[in-house]
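We append the chain.
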Amino acid sequence: MVKVILDGVSKRFNGTSAVDNFNLEIKNEEFMSILGPSGCGKTTLLRLIAGLEPLSEGRILFNDKVVNEVPPRDRNVAMVFQSYALFPHMTVAENIGFPLTVRKNPEDKTTKRVKEIAELLRLTHLLERKPKALSGGEQQRVAVGRAIVGTPDVLLMDEPLSNVDAKTRAYLRAELKELQRDIKTTLLFVTHDQTEAMTMSNRIALMNHGNLVQLGSPKEIYEHPKDIWSGSFVGSLPMNLFNCKLIDKKGVRAIGASCFAPQSPNNIMELLRDQKDGTQFTLGVRPEDISISKTRQSNLTCEAEVHLLEPMGDSLIVTLKVVDSIMRAKTKPGFEVTEGDHMYISFDWNRSHLFLGDEGKESLNDTNPS
């Protein structure tokens, strides 16, 4: 199998950078996700690795061998597209076996290999059907089968689950993760869906505007976002962000609200120990780290009014108004509350995030309160 190294990779179209000085190492047999918003350069990065686009700058290495000038057919890379791209006039068996047929593989060996792949992907009973007779999830599995039938060193997937319904998507996530483990290939998975990246990957490369923003395990990306953008992008619900100010080392106050005065938790104040009075910063709190109650719990609790309720079945999303600030909290289903109720909220300060500086870089948030 193959380790893939991107060394200062850049791609420009008419002077516009789609990928800018991108450095990344994908380990052998690793499931790596490239996560980012639409238009950030994810697909361009895959096409560069596959050899479908020439580099503007940098190097791409497979096992320490530079492949910049190696044509796509000689890289032993397979790609699964968002649109499936199946041949409508061919059966499932013919679609899966097409790469071997093109290489003039002996027919008996092709048939044997197609059956192996069909069994692996649970497609054996569909081999004689054509794509129009398949569901979206079945078509996607056929597309994956066609990609892996030739035993590629690197498997590239470009938003492969975006065209299937939510239930099928959840099923295919588990299936792809198990498949990658079984075939032991290096897999690079492009997605804008943070749930896909979080649930499937060994590591996530977070990308924005053609740049690598943060690299780490799903847990690291979620619990220690590098900056405000990372923290607000990753999470099924956006992180609540509050503009705050340091007041003479005795407390912090949210601009436009009064949640954090006159006292602040010791761990937050410890992080601000070296900052000057009047320093402005951003406090980030995820909805699941906000507690709601009908009575005041401590001197770090502030008052809020219930603005909107969103029942999700397994949880209840509560939008709260604190003076001029709006925040969202996630609580258990069955919590008795109605719009307009007066409530008290408190934060899990050990899981809150403190962002300092003009670029909103995170300060460490794992200091325990004394």
In short: Confidence is low (pLDDT under 50) at residues 366-370.
